[in-house]
Amino acid sequence: MALSIMWxxxxxxxxxxxxxxxxxxDVNLHVYPPGSAEPFTWDADIVIWQMxxxxxxxxxxxxxxxxxxxxxxxxILGEPKQEEAMLRCMDRGAVDLLFTPLKSWExxxxxxxxxxxxxNEQELLxxxxxxxxxxxxxxxxxxECNIRAVNRRFQKDFGVKAGLPCYMVYxxxxxxxxxxxxxxxxxxxxxxxxxxxxxxxxxxxKGEEVQLLVWTAPVYDESGSxxxxxxxxxxxxxxxxxxxxxxxxxxMISTLSHSIKGLLTGMDGGIYLxxxxxxxxxxxxxxxxxEAVKHITDRLRxxxxxxxxxxxxxxMDWERMDAMSFLEDVxxxxxxxxxxxxxxxxSYFDSGLDFFDVDAGIFRTALIxxxxxxxxxxxxxxxxxxxxxxxxxxxxxxxxxxxIEIRDTGIGMxxxxxxxxxxxxxxxxxxxxxxxxxxxxxxxxxxxxxxxxVTSSPGEGTVFTLRIPKARLEIVEKSEERTQxxxxxx
Length: 490
Description:
Blueprint: E1 3-8, H1 19-22, E2 27-31, E3 46-50, H2 55-68, E4 74-78, H3 83-91, E5 96-99, H4 104-133, E6 137-142, E7 147-150, H5 152-158, H6 166-170, H7 185-192, E8 196-203, E9 209-220, E10 226-235, H8 237-280, H9 283-311, E11 319-322, H10 323-339, E12 344-349, E13 355-358, H11 360-379, E14 388-395, E15 401-408, H12 415-420, H13 437-447, E16 451-457, E17 461-469, H14 472-481, E18 488-489
Parallel strand pairs: 1-2, 1-3, 3-4, 4-5, 12-14, 16-18
Antiparallel strand pairs: 6-7, 6-10, 8-9, 9-10, 11-13, 14-15, 15-17, 16-17
Helix pairs in contact: 2-3, 8-9, 10-11, 11-13
Keywords: ATP-binding, Kinase, Nucleotide-binding, Phosphoprotein, Transferase, Two-component regulatory system
Pfam family, one: PAS_9
Domain PAC: 196-248
């Protein structure tokens, strides 16, 4: 395809100036005589514009170049004495200069520079497409960690925050936004000029946690030095969750094996007492053995239910239930097990309790887990002569929530235990605990759109406070607002 050149001379005398130089070139030359109206379109490949001799018009041309530089490639033709004004045109967006008197080789060089510039621009556009269409997050950052450029995917998921340090873009916790991330691969690359890799937990513009695998590499210039670093990150959140799940699975198998082994040992002891009672015709031994086996059976049942709740995501089986009857049923289920240990167990249920939407099966399990935790805390406390567990139930002041409180006078918890108590596989009971019960309880509460608070001090007992929306519509809205497993402690 022929090259298109637009020629705008300053006067009629220079109209034929370019024709003789371009007659043997594959060029379409469009000439606009002085005084004619400006072209309505600037679609030529090159616009060669002659610098006016009048300084006022020359200044006007400089301003015109600024406004047109984004639309066309402007080349300024002028006399050597006009060099300063021509260079100002270059500053405003002109791409090249030509000086009179013209020589054939200068036109040839101009065309070669144009074709090289077009080739470079096409290569730059190609690289830009790679940059923006990459399935990874890509940023270009200075040695001060400030972001200078981002690709389209980064822009979509993290927002455009050019000029800010990367740690202020990736993180949403004010306490960690004032300094680079720990083990930052970017800082390492800045220090030693080598590529580095790291896994990092970041926060996207929606507030979601994203696990990223991050690579950093220096961007060298022609002199062999670098002032910028490229950071390429890929989202491994799903892979990380699967890896974490497998890790949890292995830990769970190990933990449950110890727990089941202990329960079976206890059952062997109960069976031995029963067998011994049969041989000796001792009713006391038989009853003691039976109670031991019954207790172990209940613990095995609870353990299996916790495993099923953890291992399988199931749809919620919603039903509208009378809150008073539901809480009373849970209370009556646990009362014999608690009172047989010599522990006082009382309930305070408000007569105004109304209906609420609940998955009765798993919510019942969650409350029993909390009551069993209270029972264990009281039994582990040998410093008090007597212990007491209370179960409260009432509606919130605005009538939108059911408030449930479980209090005990047991051993209580320190700050570290409170912080970790709802973490999977964490247990303060040693080998007698699986670390599943309270984790499952927290998950069930949040599946109901609820909130759980814990107040406890060593030796002072513990209070669990639950707030559960009564209506299913409110439950769905609150579940979307709260992240899985968020727990408030005091």
